[in-house]
Design a protein that fits this description.
The chain is α/β, with parallel strands linked by helices and about 250 residues long. It is built from twelve helices and eight strands. α2 runs parallel beside α3 and α4 packs parallel to α5.
Length: about 250
């Protein structure tokens, strides 16, 4: 176990920044490592990531002291355990709408006495570590996504569950659930995001959301301390500026 940079920053009351993008590989993580982000979001719900790639991706994160934060596609304990055994040290779970679901995810990500994570050698993170089970429990990062109206309604109960490190309010899916498809900046959606962040923070828990330039200041003021942002917009902006400059010099 190498520790968990994102978890350490959150526990210290600091802001953690995690990066991702349209294309994820160990090479892209290696390149992005020099940029100074605290973690890299490995997209396992929507992206093309396969099980055999997770080992190399998480190793690339380790080389740059970044947390490998993997979004899985299911609440199934076997899926979560396998991602951890392959080397991810952060797990993001989508569509968590009830307290019961949140409690089951704690059990899936922690060994006893906290949970019931399937016993295994621990993969490479457990090699030559006689205290692997305790270290794994201490260092795993569990993130649950608040992305539906039902989750907003049940938020008080959900955030009462211990051993969840971060409650991430996802504006795009929430917008769809609220009837504003494709409108994450809609005033009602943003009001719901801010309200959820404030509620989570007021309860003494850690809130996070997407790092969108237009609203990041507002979300920090509301109490958010974890942001996931994509480098896709930077590529588009840089490309547009470059091509515009070349065109102007013709």
């Amino acid at each position: 176990m190498r520790g968990n940079r994102v978890k350490q920053k959150l526990e210290a009351g600091e802001i953690a920044n995690v990066l991702s993008g349209h294309s994820i590989s160990s090479d892209s993580i290696d390149f992005c490592g020099q940029l100074g982000f605290d973690g890299f979001w490995i997209e396992g719900e929507h992206g093309s990531v396969t099980w055999d790639q997770i080992g190399d991706m998480s190793r690339a994160c380790d080389l740059w002291d970044m947390t490998s934060v993997m979004r899985v596609h299911s609440h199934e304990p076997g899926v979560i355990t396998r991602a951890l055994d392959r080397g991810a040290n952060g797990i993001v779970v989508p569509h968590v709408n009830t307290k019961a679901q949140a409690e089951q995810l704690v059990k899936a990500t922690r060994f006893a006495p906290i949970g019931q994570r399937g016993m295994f050698s621990g993969g490479r993170r457990g090699y030559s570590d006689p205290n692997y089970i305790q270290n794994a429990n201490d260092n795993v990062l569990l993130v649950i996504l608040i992305e539906e109206v039902e989750a907003i309604h049940n938020l008080a109960e959900i955030i009462s569950v211990d051993h969840i490190d971060l409650f991430f309010v996802a504006p795009s899916d929430l917008a769809q659930s609220m009837g504003f498809l494709g409108q994450p900046y809609h005033p009602e959606v943003q009001a719901a995001v801010r309200g959820a962040i404030q509620q989570i923070t007021a309860a003494g828990r850690v809130a996070g959301t997407i790092g969108m330039d237009a609203v990041i200041e507002t979300h920090i003021q509301a109490g958010a301390r974890f942001f996931m942002t994509s480098y896709d917009a930077w590529i588009k902006t840089g490309a547009s500026q470059y091509l515009a400059k070349v065109a102007a010099l013709k």
